[in-house]
Amino acid sequence: MKKAMVIFAVLGASMALVTSCVGGPKIKTDELDNKGSAIGVTTPDWIKLYVTEGVTKVQAQPQFKDKYCIIGEESSTNKQFALAWADNFSAQQRIGAMLRTTISSKYQAAVTGASQSTGGTNSSTAAGSGSAEYNQEIENMINAVVNVSYSGAQRDSDWWVLTRRYDPDQEGVYSDEYTAYVLYTIPKAELNRQIAQALETSVSKDSALYQITIDLAKEILLNGVDYLDSETGRGGSGTETAASASSSVPNGTYTYAPRLREMQGGANKNSYLDRIVVRGGYFVVYLVDRLVGKGGYPGEGEFRGRDYGRDESKIILQNLNNPQQTWCPAKVDRDDENGGLYLTFQGVQGSRFSLADHNFNPPYVFEEIPIGRPDA
Q1: Three-class SS of residue 121?
Q2: How far apart are the two ends of the chain, measured CA to CA in Å?
Q3: Are residues 99 and 194 in the same domain?
Q4: pTM (2 decimals)?
Q5: Which domain holds residue 199?
């Protein structure tokens, strides 16, 4: 399947996410049942597009020309749990979650542009862009915008399927799982207006971010948030195909500023993703225990390797564009540069990921790790 961008696709935190590394070509998936099978209703087109090509293709349909699509997804071995989740799905929370990625990316692009200019109203802002204080101010602004209550989302449709995953080489070994989907839409003009207003009212005139924020608000009001219309989070026309879901990640260093934060059971925890380095077929994730600066290992022993008594087969990197693709770390070791640790994976493909440690219940998880452009 697929999880993607602001067109606001969302990953519901899967309660039945694989608990071991089962990726690879031997795993097969069959659909056993769905919402419409008992009454002769065929699978809706939006589900077919979402499952095979991602939310971008759903968004590109003529009926959604003037709307943003918000698609939620949840999997469970319990049908009633999955359906109850769909009934209680919060479009507001998912909008906020995706805005965190969106606004962060836009701030960083603006700060980079300012730092490359000479003179001008933003030169002093750019000068401080590398400081801990400046990064904290960005984080505070993002939190203010994310916590605004956005209105106007309407529930358009829902669906569920029952699938079986199995290894054809192991007779009688399989896993059945229900997945519920829910589709909300919100008029683009309405959401753009609300985001712009939230930005304008959340920044003070004496803030180093003031002009950047006002410019960002104007841009969103006029052009919307289509700079995250591609699943890579790089912006574009929203015409990306399913091929990107299975393509290798380009070599380079991908730094997250502000750092991405892990969660456990819906609560923020003290582990942050600083950067990802891709080189020579290796995909290396660096974690640290604080938002800025050097630190130590993640707070409560999560994401440690076998040297710490952990089952590394329960540390899972998952391709959100194709959840059947999962990887376990080939190596876990100390990061001497930032004082945290790093996890090395091999053969990783995709453009959006989650990372979870199922040695704990509930698991520690980075719910969404978008891969944008590598650092310059």
Answers
A1: coil
A2: 31
A3: yes
A4: 0.57
A5: 1-240
